[in-house]
Amino acid sequence: MRIDKGLMAGSGTMLALTLLESGDMYGYQMIEELARRSNDVFQMQEGTLYPILHTLEKGGYLSSYQRQAPTGRTRKYYKLTRKGRQLLADKKSEWERFRQGVSDVLSGGAEALGLA
């Protein structure tokens, strides 16, 4: 079953920030890691990821640096800034509220569960 791309669109920033929470990565590495961590549910394209990274970098949420790979190729690595870590915390909180709201609707609401 395919996942509606609209669901992914609102999650791209949070997913990118989460990947960088564990350490610096270059773009293609992030795409591969996202697919791995999601059991291939998320197949983010370069054309989706790089605009997210550039926007986050312009906003001061990420910094970047270049490093040469063993193959001789130069790669651009992205790193979370303190401001980026705060944005990630905010996005995770926002996601949890959204997830809980959807769950409540699907289960009949908090009143149906005796929680209200």
- For the biggest β-sheet, the strand order reads 1-3-2
Q: What is the number of independent domains?
A: 1
In whole angstroms, the N-to-C terminal distance is 34 Å
Q: What's the helix count? A: 5
CATH topology grouping: Arc Repressor Mutant, subunit A
How many strands, which pairing sense, and closed or not: the largest β-sheet? 3 strands, antiparallel
Tell me the CATH architecture: Orthogonal Bundle
What's the CATH class label?
A: Mainly Alpha
Shape: globular
Rg, nearest Å = 17 Å
Let me know the number of strands: 3
User: Strand percentage, roughly?
Assistant: 5-15%
Q: List the secondary-structure elements in sequence, H or E.
A: HHEHHEEH
CATH superfamily descriptor? Winged helix-like DNA-binding domain superfamily/Winged helix DNA-binding domain
Helix content: 55-70%
Q: Which residues form runs of ≥5 with pLDDT under 50?
A: none
